[in-house]
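Fresh eyes needed here. I'd like your take on this protein's tokenised backbone:
***
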Amino acid sequence: MEMTASSTKWGCECDVHLSSSVSASMAAPSSSSSFRGIYDVFLSFRGEDTRFSFAAHLYDALERRGVNVFFDDHNIRRGESISPTIKKLGIEGSRSSIVILSQNYANSTWCLEELVKILDCRKTMGQLVLPIFYILDPSDVRNMKGALDRLWLTMKKLST
């Protein structure tokens, strides 16, 4: 079964399709892990690219399916320090992460720091990580060009 969400709530028309197996795997506890996070999913995205479009629609679609999502607009209280909250509560407190790789994702130090933490949680806690390539040229994805080339180079620098 596939679920479709279409909305103009965030100021644009956008469709998000989720198969029931994908949304169920994010919400159902993993039999191979005893991790009990506060959230099922942490969304990592470049705000200027997707906050009021794809990321917002994905958040709405997942929440309607019963998936508890950490979305920085909704889960950080006024006056709270953003970085430690996102890293500790959001990323470490989630059983899985969805990384929305968009045109400007690699240009953001913030996004890259999130990605490093997400990959660390994948390695140390077995966190499920799902990438979404959002409005990127398929040949750029296949050949690691453009935004993905910048992301790859930056990740190599951060890991050394």
About this structure: The longest helix spans residues 109-125. The longest strand covers residues 94-101. The two ends are 43 Å apart (CA to CA).
